[in-house]
Amino acid sequence: MNIKRNVLLNPGPATTTDTVKMAQVVPDICPREKEFAGLMKGLRSDLLKVVHAPEDEYTSVLFCGSGTINIDICINSLVPEGKKILVVNNGAYNTRAVEVCEMYHIPHINLKSSVYEQPDLKLVEQTLKENPDVAVVYCCHHETGTGVLNPIREIGALAHQYGAIFISDTTSTLGMIPLDVVKDNVDFCMASAQKGLMAMSGLSFIIGKTDIIKASKNYPTRSYYCNLYLQYEFFEKTGEMHFTPPVQTIYATIQALKEYFAEGEEAKFARHRAIYEAIHKGVDELGLKTVIDPKIESGLVVSVLYPTDPNFSFEKVHDYCYERGFTIYPGKISTTNTFRLCALGAINANDIKDFFVVLKEALETYNIKVTYND
Ligand SMILES: *Cc1c(COP(=O)(O)O)cnc(C)c1O
Q: How many CA atoms lie within 13 A of 260 on its CB side?
């Protein structure tokens, strides 16, 4: 089968291999069959390997939904009665966690800081010192909206020092930037299959400490469908998801994990890095400006400032590139106009070279000058 290849430079879903696409075409199967439970068992244990989580301490729990379901579940399930969650917030994805707290009326501290910078660890520590009722600290590993990488190992260490658990939203790093949950002080992390693992959308998973999940049985229950303990318990009893799983996405994810281990953690990390460097090179050559200091960038997302030439139209440039197989994506900074170029997926540095040829053509076609009035 010949499937058109698109180079997705949006922050997920990512470009997939044809073998992952084709892995979805399988005989119909009822997901309550033992055969399917067996597949999920292997998948759950492979997910632990991706983040070097020891099987005797950590477990992985699968959910049917996009990545945000993990944020919802972790927050609504893991805050004990009478305790607070501290959200270390420097961007749109951490803000999403704050919104989940608001929606469930969970006592929380929104420690908000500049979206252009990493959080201030001294302020995190001071907040923990002043609020002994904080039981959970939460911070996104990589603020996908800007490209800022957060110092989760240090934040996790602070959480533990002050007796709290640490949850990190690793949706946009897992499978791309090596993560070791033990060394990185992460009690709970999460992702969905369509990002770093280069599978399809519809499957999300939380990897976390088994004893904490067991303890959460006695925490306030705030959701029926999205409760971590309930789903964990069902998996332990039956090997199945409580409700219908995304069957075909699970087949694709199993294939994607095979390809992940075949490529190798370090080699994959190096490939993403090479894509990121090619993006910066192309951006520099066109005279485009970026908004985040490369020293704190994840190496997976580059936020590019709109040129100030009145001829510039994101939509026109986007459509020109889209028609030629390249997808670019708007930014997520409310005060500045940016678009994003991301290094996810089954692509390589040559795809980025090809993309910049097309982007340059787009700018010429619409007579857009790359200028900035500061
Ligand atoms: C993509 C992403 C999510 C999940 O977004 P969905 O649209 O629900 O899949 C969550 N957190 C981060 C950091 C992400 O990059």
A: 26
